[in-house]
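Predict the 3D structure for this chain.
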Amino acid sequence: MNPSRLIFHIDVNSAFLSWESVYRLSNDPTALDLRTIPSAVGGDSASRHGIVLAKSILAKKQGVTTGEPLVSARRKCPSLTIVPSRFEFYIKCSEAMLLLLSDYTPDSEPFSIDETFLDMTATIHLFGDPIIVANQIRERIKQELKFTVNIGIAPNKLLAKMASDFEKPDQCHTLYREEIPQKLWPLPIRDLFFVGQSAQSKLEAIGIHTIGQLAACDETILKAHLGDKYARLIHQYANGIDDSPVAPKEPINKGYGNSITLSRDVDDYHSACQVLLSLCETVGARLRAHHVRCQNVCVELKDWQFRQHTHQANLKDPTDSTSEIYHVAARLLKEFWDLTPVRLIGVRAGKIQEEDCYQISLFEDPRAVKMKEMEKTVDAIREKFGTDSIKRASFLKKDSLVDHAVSKKKHLPRQAAGTGQVSV
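Done. Predicted structure below.
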């Protein structure tokens, strides 16, 4: 680890809920601030379908967690106020934050829609002491954009991200190398980035309960229980070791993707297609919002044994149509899935082209043209009145597995994911 590096990690507090509050207050200054009550951004509050995408601090204190079904959240917190998502507006909030952050360094890496890494190594001398600069950024975001963030300051991305997860909201924290024994090692093992529930159970079974105990453990013992590659990774993380660079924004020819971990395993084609359609809604909307088209569609599955399977196909003509992407995705699913129960489904649009750079077909089906115009109209309606203001009939059924236009908030780090996709 290069001790001279200086990395900031900016994390929006309760992002979707904060941005929803910003939208409502900007349209009606007398509106109730969702951040001050037990509330959540989720699916259809009337039908109680969908999952919690974001929750307020008061809802969190009552046990509500991101990703849990709304029915479960209601049981924990009967007074919970649930509002639909407004995803297109959230993208604008994220982009506004990135523009503000560009005042401090050109070296940034969006980690998800609400998280960004800044490499301040080459520019911090222009602004002053790191903690003072971080607080200036935090205050600017609060005053200019009307939402709050946490900022972690450290010599690498891993420690910066861990630092931003310390006390919330609206705080700046440091986690320098010399602070690791005091600030990082006493934390429970579940707080270490990339340690999931399964790994936590295995580690606790051999007496490892804190990050410090993991850092001190013989790596050979960890490999025997967790496998070589993963054991090495989390052992390095526990010791604060991470040499990954702050990479620039993905070039346009990478891709747009979305995936969801399901609340239950799926083993039938109809339910899986419903999930695919939900994912394609978000992917298509993002392509249209960014004025780009894709010429490749890939479907990703992860089964109940965590084995990953993918299948992809190139398109004859570039498209930004949700319907076209979905039809290809559904065909791919039927071609390669043997109905083994799956717990994660993903869709990725690749071979991206800018809207004004693709060749128009002289033989394009007039019905397809009308469908694309309809989808743009739907985008506009959702932008103005909210994502749930208009939805496909298939998502109105009581047995619907997911809401339409689901979004995936977090990503794996680049070195672990290895996809190079732009996902939300």
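Residues 100 and 140 are 8 Å apart (CA to CA).
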